[in-house]
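ABC transporter permease: structure, please.
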Amino acid sequence: MRTAKMFWRDMCLGTFRHGARFLIIPLVVVLMTAGFAEYAANIYEAGTIAGSGTAADYYLYVMQGMYIYKFSPDSTFVIPISWFMLHIGLAYLTAYYPCKDYNEYGAIVLPAGGSRVRWWIAKMFWCLMTVFLYYIGIAVTCTISACVHGAKLSADFSVDLLEHLYGDSMNYVSQSDMILISVLLPFAISVLMTEVQMLFSFLFTPVISFAATCGVYILSAYYTCWWLPGSYTMWQRSSYINYEGVKPMSGFVIALFGLLCVIVCGTLYFQDKDILD
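Here you go.
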């Protein structure tokens, strides 16, 4: 019960109070989907595809990230700005509150909660729920954008439209596989990234932790490696789409193992932490 109360307190102070930061979502979605809607409308009017897209198509376009980058003397590396803004927006949303709350109210809240472990678990649930609300915001905003542009209100993606954008591989990916690599896996990795960032903000500083998160995402855009978690948030990098991509199961294993490490390390850290220091 005390954990639930601390969790709700965190939601009020750490998420709802800073609701304006969620505006990064409509900003990115509007910028991205305007061009996508025009492209879909043009090829629909040309009779190339059967419809002008669905809400799922808009979501996939926003969450696509970038194709596997391969260095060559003639190539130019450009970070996918929209993808980067979405994930850094989430990282910034969760970067500073935990340490600020601990420094200002830790000496009061921790004894009142009856357990330092409960306090840490409440913070982890806060991270989880904030990420969940963030992804709900992305889905809702994409749906609204799709309706505004006359797309079909459907959770199924349009194979013919996406084939024009991403190639023939879209013919061999099922709807359930797309949900796995574009919704569930990015969500799991985003939870991991925010939880690790929170732990590092206590071990070092929030600024260093946030900068490290940004660095991981930049490296993930440049390199497609199984050990760089940002690669799993780009469904174009999935082995379901490109045989050279990362395997979804590896991403889930990394997320699970990483979260277990965060739980253990955070618990050990706060058990020995002097709340008056």
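Notes: The two ends are 28 Å apart (CA to CA).
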